[in-house]
Design goal:
Layout lengths: L6 H4 L2 E3 L5 E4 L12 H8 L1 E3 L2 H10 L4
GO molecular function, one term: structural constituent of ribosome
Family: Belongs to the bacterial ribosomal protein bL35 family.
Protein name: Large ribosomal subunit protein bL35
Length: 64
């Protein structure tokens, strides 16, 4: 039986051309009035997963 892609995870990550796996930071959906501009700007940036997480993600997404 073929391995299936985890569709929930697939929607939440981005794979770069070099193969790095990025995710969006949490905390930018509501209660933004009390957060500083700098903090909101930093939350907009994507972040790379740790090496341990990458190993786990590759099991859930066999086709990346």
């Amino acid at each position: 039986m073929a391995l299936k892609t985890h569709k929930g995870l697939k929607k939440r990550i981005k794979v770069t051309a070099k193969g790095k796996i990025l995710h969006w930071r949490a905390g930018k959906s509501h209660l933004l009035a009390k957060k500083s501009k700098k903090r909101k700007r930093r939350l907009s940036l994507k972040k790379e997963f740790s090496k341990k997480d990458v190993k786990r993600i590759k099991k859930l997404l066999p086709k990346i």
